[in-house]
Design goal:
single chain, globular
Length: about 375
């Protein structure tokens, strides 16, 4: 067949059109495939922590509860018994935590899996790991490395019973991180003793001079007080406790009356003393220096992790008790009715302080 020039031009045009169509069509398929590959790569490259739902175990014996309120650390009977004899090694717990968790915690709370307090073990203990606040009357030091912390940990608390979170002395032991480290003189070591500092660490809030060197200490309008402690968690933090904790400014610090050479006398709250000495806010700050950091810069929200030590995984009943008590303790508001007249941390600090004990994915290494 003979082709004319116009016919050849038409065929060339058709061939060129088909070639372009095929090229564009293939190119479109390739772009679609690349988009799919990119989508897959975005999923593969996701660096967000992957933590199982529900309860899971870190290593062989550190159990993370599904509600993320606490850890259950299963230890040997020998190590467990040492805690019940007031000889427990807190470092075996703290080092285990830092094996899997970042240095994210101000406090570590340790509890035993017990229903009744064993004889010979205190109701609670606060082991200060670091003191870095000036103006509290305390010597400053840093032992965080000994406990496995890179510098953040403040205190390790041990209480033999979980119910002490609600009833006390949980608030009391937390207060020991700041007080009484020599802020006022006391015949009762590290407590308020016979003074008007009346709060979690003992003392009265009202003093009546009975004459002849006898005095009556009252608390909340009632005769009597404790030199070591007052009423568990039913007592909020006192004025001086709030000041030392950084919850109120120095301008709110009240004068404190301290009995010299006190001795118990007959009658509830009655004691003898050589005299009563008053310590004003000005005199205390002149003696110890201003609190640094000040109220304006002080830490008021704290991060903690709670650990239940046991010789086998704890029961469902214990799990429910721990979850309920910790959730109520850190609540930014009043706890549930079952707490009765017990204060949680928010209430005890007048709505200023906060605690967080929840275990989050980002806390894990």
């Amino acid at each position: 067949m003979k082709y004319t020039a116009p016919a050849i031009k038409i065929w060339l045009f058709l061939l060129l059109f088909l070639s372009i169509s095929v090229t564009v069509s293939c190119g479109k398929d390739e772009i679609t495939d690349l988009d799919n590959i990119d989508d897959r790569e975005e999923v593969i490259d996701d660096d967000s922590p992957s933590v199982p739902d529900g309860t899971f175990t870190l290593g062989e014996n550190l159990i993370v509860d599904e509600n993320r309120w606490f850890l259950n650390y299963v230890i040997s009977q020998a190590d467990y018994d040492l805690f019940l004899a007031d000889q427990g090694d807190y470092k075996i717990v703290t080092h285990k935590i830092y094996e899997y968790f970042k240095d994210d915690f101000d406090f570590i709370f340790i509890f035993s899996d017990e229903d009744v307090k064993p004889d010979g073990v205190p109701f609670g203990t606060n082991r200060s790991v670091k003191r870095d606040i000036e103006g509290l009357g305390a010597v400053l030091y840093d032992e965080t490395a000994i406990y496995g912390s890179a510098g953040r940990l403040k205190s390790v608390l041990y209480l033999p019973l979980v119910k002490y979170v609600r009833n006390g002395p949980f608030l009391h032991e937390i207060a020991h991180h700041w007080a009484n480290k020599g802020f006022i003189p006391s015949t009762v070591s590290t407590h308020w003793g016979y003074s008007s500092a009346g709060g979690q660490l003992g003392g009265f809030d009202e003093l009546v001079d009975l004459g002849n060197g006898e005095y009556l200490g009252k608390l909340n309008g009632n005769d009597g007080f404790g030199p070591f402690a007052n009423g568990g968690n039913s007592i909020p933090y006192s004025n001086v406790e709030l000041y030392l904790m950084g919850m109120i400014p120095s301008s709110d610090l009240e004068t404190i009356q301290v009995a010299e050479n006190p001795e118990n006398a007959e009658g509830t709250g009655v004691f003898k003393a050589d005299k009563i000495t008053s310590y004003t806010a000005t005199s205390l700050i002149d003696q110890h220096g201003a609190r640094l950091p000040s109220y304006a810069d002080s830490q008021k929200a704290f991060k903690a992790i709670a650990v239940i030590i046991s010789t086998s995984p704890i029961s469902e009943e214990r799990i429910e008790m721990v979850n309920s008590n910790l959730e109520n303790f850190v609540k930014q508001g009043e706890p549930s009715a079952e707490w009765g007249n017990s204060n949680n941390f928010w209430m005890a600090t007048g709505g200023v302080g906060a605690f967080d004990v929840s275990i989050k994915n980002e806390n894990l290494k």
